[in-house]
Amino acid sequence: MKWRVLLILLLGAAAIEISWHPCKLKTTTDQPDGHKDFDAECADVKMPLCHDKICTDEAKEISIFLKRIPATQPGVKPKALWMLNGGPGSSSKSMEDVMLEAFNAAKETVTLYTMDHRGTGRSTILQCSKERPRGQDLMDCLASLRQRFGDNGPIAFSVTSAAMDLKTIVESSTFADTDVFIYGLSYGTYLVERLMHLEPQRVKGYTLDSVQSNQLKTGKEAQFNSNWEKGAGEVVRKFLSHCDENKFCKSKIGPDAKKTLKKLYQKLDKSKLKCSSPLQAIAAKYGVKSPSVVVSQILFDWLTEPEKRVFIPALIYRLNACTADDESWINELELPSSLTETNDKAATVEQPSGPFLNGAGSSDVAFGTILFSELWQVPSVTAKKLNKYSLEALMSMESERHIEETIATYCIYVGNNDKVCTGKDKLSFVYPRDKYWGESPKIPDGSSVLMLSGELDPATPIKYAKQELNAMVGAEKLLVSFPSAPHDVLAHSPIANTPSESCALDIILSYVAAGGNVKAVKKDCVAQVEKLNFETWDEELSKELFGSKSPYEKTTSQSLLNAAAGESKSNFLAATVLLYGVLAVSAVVIVIMAVYIRSMKQHNDPKAETKEDSGKPEGNDDANGDAAIDSVVIISEDGDSVMSNSGSTSSKSRVDSV
What we know:
Layout: H1 2-11, E1 21-24, E2 39-48, E3 61-69, E4 79-84, H2 96-105, E5 110-115, H3 135-149, H4 153-156, H5 159-170, E6 179-185, H6 187-198, E7 203-209, H7 228-245, H8 247-253, H9 257-269, H10 276-285, H11 291-303, H12 306-309, H13 312-320, H14 327-331, H15 337-340, H16 364-374, H17 383-393, H18 400-413, E8 448-454, H19 462-471, E9 477-482, E10 494-495, E11 498-502, H20 503-513, H21 539-546, H22 556-604, H23 606-613, H24 621-631, H25 648-657
Parallel strand pairs: 4-5, 4-6, 6-7, 7-8, 8-9
Antiparallel strand pairs: 1-2, 2-3, 3-5, 10-11
Helix pairs in contact: 3-18, 5-6, 7-17, 9-11, 9-13, 10-11, 17-18, 22-23
């Protein structure tokens, strides 16, 4: 093995041979057949653990997993488009559907490629016995990885090492006479920028979607992960200002949506709202201190998804006006993983070389190694400050518990070599920052850069894309901004009336078709991308989240109960009126009968008539009988018949009152 690694180091790209074999586009163990009617090609490429000038280990090799969809209609000059995922620590699994979409949109004229970053997925993976190890579990895991890969372990899985893998591959014979384009998403943009430093041959263009800036020497406001909440807070405020500018949204939580949200948090935490109780129960269950933090995490989760973010004003509105009836849908709310995640999941067993992947293929260790080596402030910000940033953001994926866990994890990775750390263990798993760190790359000769950024992206705010654009040396560069897009513009730039079509994808393919000429890129579709609209929403999603078609109305179950109660009341009133009507008619009939009987008696009993005519006092049995008949027509207010001697005049007034 030693001679093979030496040969690779000596001969460079010429020694790399990629052997492709048929595989399915979807190759996870839980979906082994994937797209049954669609085949791809896979390869496992051997790479040295240590690339030249990065570290030294002449004995060890690792495996890098590749996948491609070959073009069926290549042009005279073949084109290849690489699609690299973010993370750090994520595999290429989520790129597979995107590759197929791009392949079809390009009418099968471009070959699509992806790879699992070293340390992740189906490449040689950095893995522990638990998916998200913490504390002693993490220390034991890092110790075992140190033993496996030696002291070079951390730097062997660095950003520059992964960029060297990609440089070596694109300079291999596979890409001879091919124009290569490379797309990176989120952390993938950071990897692509590192590749630009290495100036690989054959690459005509680099596309950066949701940009991670290299300007990390600029001070406390740099795009470190430890500054995440600061940048996110600016985007939250921008989103809420859009609400203030919209008549409908303003009518619900305006005129100052930010102030409304702050007051809501205060009322929830002081238990001044009916909704405080169920939210406090959720907070207690997941180790969060207050109801407002639960709501903050839900809102941030919704902010990242265009389908859900239109419900943010509705949630604020409903919580502000909540009653005991609202507890049902609050208890049914889907909570974000940032709130509910635990560290007790067992990790999947590492797969042998081949196309199959068990699970997502993410590596928590690859994430931590890169994050704490390159994308975290040193010395670290304190947990107290991080919590302050989180609260000020108003919508945040963080909680005090999670922040404390992050600081504890950071201390383990850096061997407690920081003033924020209290531990004694000195075993670390980070690497020193190299000459490329903190430096924006020069655009390599013969290539160009296309940047895509969403103006409502809380993860990688557009201000950092502008910063990187200005710092890059070279004229062939273009930034396309999307006013309503969140993170991951490729996935979140649907064209109005044809939402299945991605404007960002159209722009990327236009860039590829133009051979990397940024001046020829067609970007007219940006004006046609769906805009943020607070007045329309997915009714099915509204029912799922709030239990009703409109998120501003009561839940369906409560509405049905109210409707049923209203119907019962209406039926009762109708029955009461009908009863009164029947009784009234009966009373009239009785009166008529009484008059008729009296007249008949007078007609048949002349003596009685003579007595009346003679003015003799009444008081005979007939008169008493008449009084008895009159008494039965008196009706009480509740509709029941009562006995009374009040006379016929009183009886009439009661009947009329009904």
